[in-house]
Automatic annotation (TrEMBL):
<keyword id="KW-0863">Zinc-finger</keyword>
<dbReference type="GO" id="GO:0008270">
    <property type="term" value="F:zinc ion binding"/>
</dbReference>
<dbReference type="InterPro" id="IPR019787">
    <property type="entry name" value="Znf_PHD-finger"/>
</dbReference>
<dbReference type="InterPro" id="IPR034732">
    <property type="entry name" value="EPHD"/>
</dbReference>
<feature type="domain" description="PHD-type">
    <location>
        <begin position="126"/>
        <end position="176"/>
    </location>
</feature>
<dbReference type="Pfam" id="PF13832">
    <property type="entry name" value="zf-HC5HC2H_2"/>
</dbReference>
<dbReference type="InterPro" id="IPR013083">
    <property type="entry name" value="Znf_RING/FYVE/PHD"/>
</dbReference>
<dbReference type="InterPro" id="IPR019786">
    <property type="entry name" value="Zinc_finger_PHD-type_CS"/>
</dbReference>
<keyword id="KW-0862">Zinc</keyword>
<keyword id="KW-0479">Metal-binding</keyword>
<dbReference type="InterPro" id="IPR050701">
    <property type="entry name" value="Histone_Mod_Regulator"/>
</dbReference>
<feature type="domain" description="PHD-type">
    <location>
        <begin position="187"/>
        <end position="260"/>
    </location>
</feature>
<protein>
    <recommendedName>
        <fullName>PHD-type domain-containing protein</fullName>
    </recommendedName>
</protein>
<dbReference type="Pfam" id="PF13831">
    <property type="entry name" value="PHD_2"/>
</dbReference>
<dbReference type="GO" id="GO:0006357">
    <property type="term" value="P:regulation of transcription by RNA polymerase II"/>
</dbReference>
<dbReference type="InterPro" id="IPR011011">
    <property type="entry name" value="Znf_FYVE_PHD"/>
</dbReference>
<dbReference type="InterPro" id="IPR001965">
    <property type="entry name" value="Znf_PHD"/>
</dbReference>
Length: 260
């Protein structure tokens, strides 16, 4: 359980104060080392609160969707620690009783065979691609998860030519693993939308990053030798007012091409 205290979810910088409080509440519960089923249920409930908060409005979903893969993985990893109580307790047999038994079959007669053990429902969390937000993983286009930051992406969505049999790291984490101390960053920031985390691609400016989804949806951006180019052309889009947060100059806005 102690390993969950250092989960990737707690390394993200979140501007929403309420959401940050909810995330810190999860970490606080984990630090307290929840040992009982009741304590672990509190942790699970706190994780669900974070997930529901992110999905509550289009704005929070668009802004903090990059957290959802880590939330889902934390929920899955927590399930490994939750003990399932047994619904069938066998009879307690003393040494004297064991010696007086004529055969092992006598034990079977004391068990109520009418008892039915209910199957525990599958509560595997949904893992979604951080680019297309799809949850279906295909044989020839599976969803892979970064072993460092837990970001999940389809092979095709993230332009992964080959998935290694060992550990796989997203572009940002792969660079940070060998980065010198003066350029190392715990979480990357997109130069287009200014949000942190998620499926990042390198830009043509050294040590800067752009979300793969931003590179896809913003027509000014394009790829050149695996780097995102065109950030300077986003200045007009940065002046647009987002219909969700109602604030300009926070990031480049995508705009529908159809006139009003």
């Amino acid at each position: 359980m102690d390993a969950l205290c250092d989960h990737a979810l707690f390394n993200f910088s979140v501007q929403d104060a309420d959401l940050m409080d909810y995330i810190e509440a999860i970490q606080g519960l984990l630090v307290a080392s929840p040992d009982t089923d009741e304590d672990q249920a509190l942790v699970l409930n706190a994780i669900n609160v974070v997930e529901e908060y992110i999905l509550a409005t289009p704005h929070t979903k668009a802004t903090y969707s990059y957290l959802l893969p880590s939330v889902s993985l934390l929920k899955q990893e927590l399930s490994y620690y939750v003990s399932v109580p047994s619904t069938l307790d066998g009879p307690v047999i003393t040494d004297d009783e064991q010696g007086s038994m004529s055969s092992p079959s006598s034990i079977d007669r004391d068990i109520d065979t009418s008892m039915v053990i209910e199957e525990v429902p599958d509560k595997t969390p949904v893992i979604r691609c951080n680019v297309c937000w799809g949850e279906e993983s295909f044989v020839n286009d599976c969803i892979v998860i970064c072993d460092e930051c837990d970001v999940a992406v389809h092979e095709s969505c993230y332009s992964i030519p080959h998935v290694p049999e060992s550990s796989w790291f997203c572009n940002f984490c792969d660079v940070q693993r060998v980065a010198p101390a003066e350029t190392w960053e715990p979480v990357g920031e997109c130069r287009a939308c200014h949000l942190k985390g998620g499926a990042l691609m390198p830009s043509h400016v050294p040590n800067t990053w752009v979300h793969m989804s931003c590179a896809i949806y913003l027509p000014e951006l394009y790829f050149l030798h695996h780097n995102v180019v065109g950030l300077d052309a986003l200045k007009p889009r940065r002046k647009l007012k987002c219909m969700f947060c109602k604030q300009p100059n926070k990031g480049a806005c995508a705009q529908c091409a159809h006139p009003k």
